[in-house]
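User: Hand in any protein.

Assistant:
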Amino acid sequence: MKRYEKAPSKRTKQSTPLLQGLLLLAHTWVACATAPVPAPLPAPHPANSAFSLAPTHETRDPASASASSSSSRTSPPAGLSDAQKFRLFFRDILLVTASNSGTEPVSPDSIRQVLASHPEVLRWALEGKDWHRLFEDADLSQSSSPTGASAPLALPIPKPVADTWLTTLEQTSELERLQALRQVPDSYFEKIAEQAQILVSGYALDESPAVRILASPKSGLGVTDENLAKFLEKVLPRFYKKLNTADKARILAGQLELPPKALEEQQLSALLQSSGPCIQKLFQLIGRDVKNPKLQSAMNALQSEIRPFPGEQALKTIESRYGKSADQLFKTFDQKPLAAASVGQVHLAELSDGQRVVVKVRRPQLRERANREIQELLAAASS
């Protein structure tokens, strides 16, 4: 990894030590996060192991946890308002955008899969509900341009076909809905992907309540170091303003898990949970002595309740690492993690010989995202 040496600068001396300290923290943390870890299974690529195995005497019964992969996307839980369902639908669209690097066009079939997993939104599309009204009810209209938010959601299919789909929608599986949606032209799903891009590009993250709280000298973070206070006030908003599309989409997706008009402390927690590893590590360090009650819950969650990534992604990482399917490697694999941290998470599993193990899996694209954060922090500090 490239190391940054101190270079002569005309900037004030106050900002230079802080920036160097942050870079040292980031480089040290990334080096630790990407170091190889021994594993009992034969490893075809020993360097930079993405996960490790350790025996366990855990008595929890994993019999119901299959090693086979299953979709990490689930239908919204019952009892949600229409606005919350629409927000969760767009959350999944944004996660597809983020996983696609945020720069490459999203495939129409990826959008089809998301719509198939949200039967209520599919029903609205069949009924021809107004897209603009849904945006307003879901509190998304301020994050999207008026032109982008006014497009209709109606599926471009004949009304008799739509009526037939409506009568059978309750009895269809997600796979059946996906197959039916493959009859709809790609242009419809490309339009939805375009709405997602508009949503992300119009989202003024640096002006959000969560970033304003972190940047405000009066926020109650308890920062006494003058240099660090200047970093939070000046550099952090610029960092979030210039954030790349993929990471910005991930953060907005985290916000969409909240109900409309969520409390500021909820928005702050979602921001930190969805930010990258360097920002998370920074606020884990400086957020330990927070006195402001609004900030305490968010900082406490950052210390011990980092949001896990889907178990399906963990299995894919393992399969890619060993060149074998999960069924070949494990007798059982619990996709629900025991614990999650900024570096990775751990899962209970049982090897084919019956040995119980704890599997530690590094977060997908951890090193790449940390490197992006370092570059973007440098750019924000230099502007």
Residues 51 and 361 are 4 Å apart (CA to CA). Residues 1-18, 24-49, 51-72, 143-150 have pLDDT under 50 and may be disordered.
